[in-house]
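pinging the channel bc i need a second pair of eyes. not urgent but kinda urgent?? the chain im working w is below, pasted from the shared doc
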Amino acid sequence: PLELQPLAVLVPAARQGRYVLALGAGVQSTTVFLMSLRGEIEPYDVAVFADTQAEPKEVYVHLAKLIDEGERHGLPVQIVTAGSLTKRLLDPTRRDGIFCRRRVPTCSLPG
């Protein structure tokens, strides 16, 4: 299982002048992550993946590979989450001022 870290641990690191990579596990951030490991760009001190808990399985498989690669090269990947973003946004009993409206696509056929 992937280990979650509280965000409070990461904020002080950024304030101390450390380089923190926002790792979304997509093409761009993966490229930057790998370039940092290979020394092609300035090295990062830590990479942070903000988990919405709604990513496709393939993203988590890819992330696990990045974590392993980071461990081999001394670049830790920290995972932070505030819980399931999907459940929070779609919860009709929530009263925090944030809302999400589902739009059902409609179409009309000619004739």
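so The chain has four helices and three strands. and Residues 11 and 20 are 9 Å apart (CA to CA). — does that match what u expected or am i reading it wrong
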